[in-house]
From TrEMBL:
GO terms for cellular component: cytoplasm. Keywords: Aminopeptidase, Hydrolase, Metal-binding, Protease. GO terms for molecular function: metal ion binding; metalloaminopeptidase activity. It comes from Allosphingosinicella ginsenosidimutans. Residues 538-597 form the Peptidase M24 C-terminal domain. It holds the Pfam family Peptidase_M24_C. Belongs to the peptidase M24B family. This is Aminopeptidase P family protein. Residues 7-138 form the Creatinase N-terminal domain. It comes from the Bacteria.
Amino acid sequence: MSTYEDRLKALREQLKADRLDGFVVPLTDEHMSEYVGSYAQRLAWLTGFKGSAGSAVVLPEEAAIFVDGRYTLQVRAQVDGANWSYQSVPETSVAEWLKAHAPDGGRIGYDPWLHTKTWVKQAREALAERGAELVAVGHNPIDKIWADKPAPSRARLVVQGDDLAGRSSASKRQELADWLKEQRADAAVLAALDSIAWTFNVRGKDVEHTPVALAFALVDADGTADLFVAGEKIGDDVRQHLGNGVRLHERDAFEPFLKSLSGKTIVVDPERSVAAIFEALEGAGAKVIAKRDPTVLPKAIKNPVEIAGQKSAQARDGAALVRFLHWVSVEAPKGNVDELSAEAKLEEFRQATGQLKDLSFTTISGAGPNGAIVHYRSTPETNRKLELNSIYLVDSGGQYADGTTDVTRTVAIGTPSAEHRDRFTRVLKGHIAVARAVFPEGTRGCQLDSFARQYLWAAGLDYAHGTGHGVGSFLSVHEGPQRISPAGSSQAGGDEPLKAGMILSNEPGYYKTGAYGIRIENLVLVVPREAEGAEKRLLGFETLTFAPIDRNLIETAMLTAEERAWVDDYHARVMEIVAPQLDGEVLEWLAAQCAPL
């Protein structure tokens, strides 16, 4: 099965053998993760789609792939339109499409370990309108035909010490126990990998770019816990760190354990836990309370140690990025730099810090028209040179033991056009509007999203992604529950009230299909603010990311005095934080880049 067409044909044959008329293939794992281990990359194996969000449906005569606006261009480049129809979310959904396309009376299969209970309910109701049935499979049909499917990672867990975590695992578990008593519950299921990593102060290497380990957990109302993880992944150091309050089990003992909880009251997060968990508990006679994972909010609100670590990581990462931007300014005009060589050079500068654990996601290195693909990933087939009189977008980040970084810069190679400068400056004005925002406590991210878009909207322009996402502490680069995104968008979370201690990205952009892309991204920390005569408690943002914004792309005349002052103040802070780590040519270049407008 060397071609994707062969794989699609093999799946259809397997479905026929399994007496199924269709199958749903999501891009996730048993933990509803955004990024998944190689063993769970079923969608990519079947279709060729390499994005980080999507799903597919295969029927006997047709097949469809579903992505949101971030992947509109990418899916067409990677997935053969002769075999797959492209479906746009949220304009449609898997359930809606099945209602229109499933065979009358058909049996559509799904893996209950890869879908939420809510999704199952919606799909079942949609199919019922067609007289069709949603059928849980005991063995995923893709796994039956994927002969060389990778095994799950065997990497060992590592301890995230209190000096980095800022709190002990025992204190976190006690806080969860107190919450469980308020809910009159016996235990809470933790299925999200970053929730488990945060709660137990451990990290892992089981998912590319996200330092988590494949595990499940239950935390009890007495503060003890059961952790389900492959025994080969636990060393003596981790065993000692976890202590007597954590009972260890093999990962495959999780489902049988759930089935032993008859008569217990268990909290399960319907968004972060798969349908199979609910089915096991309900089938055993446990009482299930559907509530958000109780670690989500405390994990999002960083403690002083985590904030200090994040600032340290950002300063280190900023210096690596400045070295890279200087290198681009020297080498790209010579015509010797392409997307892949630039990507490799940036990782080299981060590795040179001596503290890089991993990238925080696959670098988006987009030259010219490739920069217009929001979640672009350069390959030997798509690799482009950074050409003169074009613009280059690079979105990247690092995982360090003390923090997770995510930063985008757009730079001019040679002389930018008047349109480049106009669009870039509109994006910059939106970025500044978010960075300078002051808002009352209780404000949600969706209320701030239009701050970033207003200058693009005024020219009839927009962008098809959220303005900001939460970021973890040496954890997921995309962390909930907070976001800055339009109300009702497919990127949920924009209705979460922002709280001091949360970290988000500030990343408005603009993308002209077939021409270029622009994005300016810094991470920001929610902090208390004061205003004379204020009648409410106020919040605002402290910028955490420090690297120059390309002055060659700024149309200064379009900026107000306050906006010019913000840029000058920001660049003064870049000099203060990053310059002491540099010398020679790089330092001279940075000083010129950070001179007042």
